[in-house]
């Protein structure tokens, strides 16, 4: 979600939480929307909704977005266990978020490319 399209400011997220010995470095941080960061918390993994297997989360510093995700309109689809698990854990396709993205797409403020 682009920062300009949210009411809450983006937050600095530790990809690997400090409580899990995550480094205090730029390589271990990324900007995250407040809703995603709040849903993730200190989690490093979750359960794939298709296989129920424990799977690590997407790492924006080392993983390729296109390998794990694709847009289907306003809905983000997971192409891999990592993608599906990340979407599920971060609640990216919750109804209110889908509605918000749909409105932004209609207003041409959300780019799906």
* Mean model confidence by pLDDT: 94
Shape: globular
The proportion of residues forming helix, as a percent range, comes to 25-40%
Q: Low-confidence segments, ≥5 residues, pLDDT <50?
A: none
CA-based gyration radius: 14 Å
Note the gap between the termini: 13 Å
Domains, number: 1
Series of secondary-structure elements, N-terminal to C-terminal: EEHEEHEEHH
Q: Which structural category do the helix and sheet elements fall into?
A: alpha+beta
Describe the structure.
This protein has 113 residues and is an alpha+beta fold. It has one domain (3-106). It contains four helices and six strands. The chain has helices at residues 34-40, 65-68, 81-90, 95-106, and strands at residues 11-14, 29-32, 45-47, 54-56, 69-72, 75-78. The strands form three sheets. Strands 1-2 form a two-stranded antiparallel ribbon. A two-stranded antiparallel sheet has the order 3-4. The chain starts with 10 loop residues before the first strand and ends in a 7-residue tail after the last helix. The mean pLDDT is 94.
What descriptors fit this protein?
globular; two-stranded antiparallel sheet; alpha+beta
Short description:
With 113 residues, the protein is of the alpha+beta class. It contains 4 helices and 6 strands; from the N terminus they run ββαββαββαα.
